[in-house]
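Example record used in the benchmark description.
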Amino acid sequence: MSYIRKITNIDTIYILVDVEEFEKNEIIKFFQTEKEKALLGATSNTSYKHLITINGLSFQLLPNGSQGYAYILRNNGYEVKIAQKRAKLEAFFPIQIRISSEYLWSYGLINSWSLIYNWIVETFGNIIKNKVYRIDLCCHIADIDLITDYDKNYKGKFKNKELFYNGNNPNAITFGSRKNKKIYCRIYNKSLEIQQTKKKKWFQEIWQENKMNISNVWNIEFEIKSDILREFNLIEFNDIIKNLKELWKYCTEQFLVKIDRINSRVERCPTNKEWQEIQKAYNNFDSVGIIQRNKQINLDAKALIPNIIGNITSYSARTGELDIMQVFNKIYKDSEIYFKNKNTNFETEVKNKMILISQKGEK
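Model output (C-alpha cells):
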C-alpha cells in the first residue's frame, strides 16, 4: 500500500466558561448599553455593524441574542455569547465560546484558546470552570475512494447513514445524527466545496505543500458532542488536549470503520488498509498553526476576484459602458451616493471589516 498523505486538525471547538461573581460584573451594563445602540443602528440601516473593542479585542456586537444568552460578540476568530445573568441551573455556564476554523488552522488549538482565555480573565474575572461541549476533529486525504458501496463497506455504532449527490455524482456521506449529543460524521468532497463556495481557498496551499492532489481532497470530520465527552470523562479544555488521539481512535475504530467486504458477515471482514492509516491520523498530532493568518486573508481576497469581475461586467452591461476606467468612475460616483444614503463612507466600512478580519488581539 502506498503512503497516504493526510492532514489533521481541530476544525471547530465550543467551550462553556464560568467566572467568579459573574452576576456582579459591571461589564454587563456596558453590553446592555451597546446592544441598544446596535439595535438602533440596525433598525435604521440593515447593513449596520456595531463594533466594540474591549481589552485589545474587537467584535461586532449583534442586535439580537440567542436562547440563554443576551449578548453575542463576533469577529473572524471567535463567537462569544454572554448571559445577562447567571441561571439557576448548575449545568448552565454564563459564557459560551466558539473558536473558528480560520484561527484553529492558523494559530493552532492551544494558542487560539489562550488568547480568548486571557481576554475573558481581563474582561470578566477569574475563570473557575470551563467545559468543552463540542469539538470537531478532521482529517483531509486525497485520492481515496470512500464512497463506492458505502452502505456495505462501513460498520460501527452509528444508527443513521445518508448519501448526498452533486448532480449525478455522490459527494458526501454522513453517519449518525446531528440532533443527538453524541457523534456525527461527515465525509465529503472538500475540493468540490471550495470550488462551489469560493471560500477558504487557502486550504489549497496547505494541500499543495503536502503534495496532495488539490482537485480530489476529501474531509473526514467527526463532530464529537457532550455525551461522548462525558462518557470519556473529558470535561475541561486540558482534558481534551491530552486525549485527542484516544478520541480519534474511538471515532475511527468503534463509531465508524471502513471494511473490505470479503465476507457476508460484517464481523469477519478486515479493516480496510487505507482506513487503518486514517486511524493513525492523530498519533503524532501537534496543535500548532498550519498556515499563516495573513496568507489566509490574502488568498481569500484573491478568491473574491471572480465575483467582483462578474458584478462589474454586469454593471457595465446595464450602463452600456465598455471602457473599464469609465466604469470605475461610474462605480465611484454611485458608491458615493450609496454611502451617503447609508450615513457612512468607504473608509469607515473598510476599516470596520479590517478590524474583524485581521483581529489578532494586539493591544
